[in-house]
Structure formats: C-alpha cells, structure tokens
Amino acid sequence: MIVSLSTLVKMPLAMTGPLACNQNTLKGINKVGPSNAETSTSNPGMFQLDIVLKKGHNLAIRDRGGTSDPYVKFKIAGKEVFRSRIIHKNLNPVWDEKVSLLIENLKEPLYVKVYDYDFGLQDDFMGSAYLRLESLEQKRPMEVTLTLKDVRYPAHNLGSLLLSVSIYPKEGITREATMHLRRSWKRSSKVITSMYSILRLSEVHRKSQLWRGIVSISLIEGRNLKPMDNNGFSDPYVKFRLGHQKYRSKTMPKTLNPQWREQFDFHLYDEEGGVIDITVWDKDAGKRDDFMGRCQIDLSSLTKEHTHKLELNLEGGEGTLVMLVTLTASTAVSISDMSVNILDDPKERQAIVTRYVSPLRSFHNLKDVGVIQVKIIRAEGLMVADVTGKSDPFCVVELGNDRLQTHTVYKNLNPEWNKVFTFNVKDIHSVLEVTVYDEDRDRSADFLGKVAIPLLSIQNGEQKAYVLKNKPLTGPTKGVIYLEIDVIFNAVKAGIRTLTPVEQKYIEEEPRVSKQLLLRNFNRVKRCIMALINAGYYINSCLEWESPQRSLAAFVLFLLVVWNFEFYMIPLALLLTLAWNYILIISGKDTRTDMVMEDMLEDEEEEYDKDDKDSERKGFMNKLFAIQEVCISVQNALDEVASYAERIKNTFNWTVPFLSWLAIVALCVATVILYFIPLRYIVLIWGVNKFTKKLRDPYTIDNNELLDFLSRVPSDVQVVNYSHSSHKGRQIRS
C-alpha cells in the first residue's frame, strides 16, 4: 500500500496526542525540495530569536533629580518574556544583556516597553516601540534602533534603544522528518511510526519547560557597609534580579556587618549565562528605603559545577558583600506534560539508573544524591472554596527549597493536571510536600489540603491515592490526590549525606503562639520523661527486692556484666536492641508506634467535635485548666533545672565556704581512690552496696548522696533572699 504525501499531511487533523500538537511541523513537510530550507514567514514554524539589548540614548526624565532608573520589558503576544536589570540614575544606560527566545510565529511583533523604577510606588512609563519580526532578514544579526513613543504624547521625544536582533529557523526536526518521508514514502506503516517518534521529539522541545541549569547563591555576609541612619547604623537587606526572577533577603537591624546566611536558587534558561543584578537597601519604616550600593555577577565568567566565593565591592556605596555562587549545568528541576516522561522510556531510565546507582559514581558529586519524578495526575472531592460551589485548584510541589506548581483548573472540584515534576535529590531523608490551593485573584490563595511523603517511604511506579490533610498534618480534610512517584538514588551518597547538616528551609511560616501546640509539646516531653521515670522505678524495685526472683536475677546480671565489661559491649547492646525491635516489627507484635499515634491524635479529636455546645464549652474549660497545669509544670521544671545548675556554680564560687571545703575533701578522697583502685572494682562495690542495702537494713531510706549535697547549696535566688545589705548610719547634718 502506497500512501501519498498529501494523505500523510491530512492525517494528523484527526489525531490526538503528540501528532495533534505538531500540525505546523507537518505543514513544513508538505513541500519537499531544497528550497524548503529557507522557511517562509507565511508558514508558522519554530524560530530562535536572539536579542542583545545594548543601550539606550536620551531617555526620558522621570525623577526629581533630572535622571531615571530605566529598565526594559519585552512582550510577545501579550506575555512578558524578558525584563532587563535596572540601571540607576542614567539617561544613557548600557545593558548589554542577551536573551534567546523560541517563537512559533514571526507575525507576532516584539513589544518593547521602558519603565522608570520607583521603589514602593508604581513604576513610571518611559516609552514603547514595536519591532516587526517578519520584516527582519534571517540567519544574520542586525542592529535595530527603536524610537520610543507614548501614544498619549506623540510629539514628545522619549529617546531610543539600540538592539541587535538575530532570527534562526529551527529546521532540524523538519529536515529529519522530510528525509524520513523521502526514504520511506512507499512504506506507510514505517512512515507513521517514524513520524510519531519525530513529533514526540518535537514535543520534548516545545512542551518540556526544562531550564538549562541552576544558579545557587548563598548570601553569607556584608562587611563595612555604609551607615544610613542617625544612630550610625543601617538596617540592610539585599535584592537579587536575574531576568524576571527576583529575590529579597531578610532585613538585619542596626548593623554594618550583617550576617544573612541565606540561600537563593535562580533558574538559568540561557546557555551563555546572564548577569545577576544585586542591590543593597536600608530599610526605613514609613518612608522610602535608602539605596546603599549595587554590584553584579557575570555568570558567563564562572565555571560550571564549581562553588565560587565572591567578595563584591558595592558601587555607589561602601563595603562588600560575601557570597558563594554555584553554577549547575545539569537540570535539577523541571516541569513537563505527561507525554514528556523520561522515566517511561526504558533507555532513558536505564541511563539515569546507571548515572546514580553505579558504584563507580558513588563518590562523584556527593551533593547529587539522586532524582525524583512526581506525576501529579488528578484530585477528587476537593473542598468548596468559592461562592459558586466550586474551586479553582492548583497544586504546589516542594522538596526542600525547590518549589514548583501546576496550572490552575478553574471551577472544578475534580481537577486533572497530568503534570510531571522532576527534582534533584540532595538528601534522601527529605520530605516531599504536595499542597493544593484555591486560586483567588484578589487575595492570597486558599488552602485546600496537603500531603507530606518521606522519600524513603515511596514505592516506585505505584499510582497511589493520598488523603489530603490539614495544614499541621494532624487530621484529614476533604479530598484525595492521585500521585505516581519514582525515586532513584545512590545509597552510598545518601549514607554520606546523612552525616552532614540538614539543609535549612528558608521558606517557612512564622511561628505563632498556640495553646494547643504548647499543650501537645508538653505532653510529648512528659511522655519521654515518664519513660525514664518508669525505668528508674523498675531499677529501684530491683534494689528494693520487691520481687526476690527478679532482684536476684538483676543482681547476678549486674555482677556478670561489670566483671566482664568491655567497651565494645556498648555498641553491641545498642545493636541487640535494634535487632530485637526489628524482630518485633516484622512479626507484627510491636504496637508502640500505633500507641504513640493514638496519643498524638487524642488531643486533636476535641477540635473536630463542634456539634454539641455543652461539650464544646466543657472542652474549652478543660483546655484552659490543662494549659494552666502545663504552665505551672513548666515553671516548676525550669526552676528545678536552673536551681541545680546554679548550685553547682555556687559550690565552686565559695558561696558557702563550709560546703566548698567539704567538696574539696570529697574530691581528694575520690582522686586517691580512682588512682589506686580500678574503676571496675569501684562500680562492683557501689552496686553490691545498692543491692544489699535493703537486705542489711529493711527500713533504710534510699538516697543519692550527690543530690543531697547539692540541695544544701543555695541557688542564686536563695542567695539574694538570704542576703542582708549592711546599713551604715548616716550622719545627720544640722
């Protein structure tokens, strides 16, 4: 069977999936011949648009000082695709910034707008211009001067911009498809199969939003910054900008040598890098913040996969900024559609597994532990957040400081996202957080539900329904989300990474005072302390000979352990404990985890029981009394700990000389005993004394000599209470 070229061109009109999205590519295949390499602008295709924003000339004045702070925006089809850095106080700015864009249609003009930056206020418009892309010659750079205009004041001279523009057709995919058609036009089935693979490759380039690298900046400190306030200090903070990506550090009050210790990640789309614009500001409450200086980082001058320590001098100010900059060439994070799924391709998956799991790469780039791919499929039965009885849900996926989100599905309680998220795993002990929000254009997004999934608990390739929980993750909320997750990691790297500090998460909610949280934390501490107290009671019962058989067994065990003790027995005992608990878990006899969960959730039940007003009122009163009890217990515990610490200090400070001399005598005796008698025999004598004390004198009261001694030493509060100021009689003058 022979299929004509016109038939092949028409076939995708009835298809879905990758073919349906690539009709433009097929239109390019319709004309076969050498002249097809020079793509006509009438046929839409893929073009690479390279723009170098060079400089501006005689721009408009917008500030009172007779200058402006200009920056430039590029828009195509109403969407902002580029934003330059700000050049402060300059009417003839020089940017020299390059941007590469992938466009589908040259009929859409490039809209260029210039603004004057005003901190805290609306930026002032400085003029705009259109660049007709279809009128430009392709495959060679052209310098273009754009005259800026304002439609409201067409007679005003607003200056001009100088750009260098290059347009290159993206013909690789079209040429490859054409060659396949030329070679195999008689084999229709093979042509269609080849078309699917070629168009799928096109989908990878068109739909996968992969950035080419990540720029990680660790803002360490500032040195000798300029004082801006009357008190001789400043309240500095730092702003970073790379294209349309912006970050701001926290404000450090009243210092000229701030210690920020913050980390920011920029996504790098341009292979040749870019320029990060950095400005330092002094925070002033109630008025405009003061400019303290600026500096830049030229990413093209930095080597990739290497951490650079930079000390940047501030222009227009004083001092330096110290930061660490790492340029990662490999893609660490990405978003793509379900049709672009690298782990579904056996060859791609095997390549990734070889990259991470291979023993030969176990000590190469220890920070790159593995990769995780998250498929956000759909959600069902979400909460109603709008007055229309619907919601506008979108999903946010977070792993450490990496944060990605899906598109919004409007007016739907059962949204389908079908997105694939890819993260670089830096720590296998991280927790993947998936949060569903309702989009509100007039205010911040509303919370709908959340799940938290430790990476080590993930079953690869298993589509699973997760019940959404509330913000503190203590109870369920309405809705279910369907996820499919794959984690590939190197166990050796993960083990080494476990012994290094945990990465600090910089985007966290501010802690707030919570009565319920205070009560829960107190109960947690109380459970831990009670476990130690119960262990102490058990040991004391052995010493008291409440059960002769148990006490005799404990006494014999104590003698055997102390007499034969070696230091290797300490890790051996811990190892045996771990093994015993593991046996209990795999045999299903360990119920301690369930008991802990029941205790943790016990306090949450009252919060959801709001039907009966009497029970609600009683629950409130019970909480009030419980909080009062917690405060009293915490108060007494803090007093007890502080008192014993102060008593130890006062013993060495000779607050009570008699007790200090007594301590000297006891320490001298202890020194002599430990010098001449081995520790093993001392412990044996102490243990035999403890075990036989009750046998020798059934009515003796057990005590701890060290605590008894410290109880006689006054704490600082008692020293103040017991002190008496010497009153010297004053001579009364007549």
UniProtKB/TrEMBL annotation:
Highest taxon of the lineage: Eukaryota
Single biological process term from Gene Ontology: regulation of neurotransmitter secretion
Classification via SMART domains: C2 (SM00239)
GO molecular-function terms, A-Z: calcium ion binding
GO annotation, cellular component aspect: endoplasmic reticulum membrane; recycling endosome; synaptic vesicle membrane
Keyword entries, A-Z: Calcium, Cytoplasmic vesicle, Endoplasmic reticulum, Endosome, Membrane, Metal-binding, Repeat, Synapse, Transmembrane, Transmembrane helix
Pfam families assigned: C2, PRT_C
Transmembrane segments: 552-585, 658-686
Keyword hit for Membrane: yes
Subcellular location: Cytoplasmic vesicle, Secretory vesicle, Synaptic vesicle membrane; Endoplasmic reticulum membrane; Recycling endosome
Keyword match Iron-sulfur: no
Residues covered by the C2 domain: 28-146, 195-312, 349-468
Classification via InterPro entries: C2_dom, C2_domain_sf, MCTP_C
Primary location group: membrane
Membrane topology classification: Multi-pass membrane protein
Family: Belongs to the MCTP family.
Designated name of the protein: Multiple C2 and transmembrane domain-containing protein 1
UniProt source species: Erpetoichthys calabaricus (Rope fish)
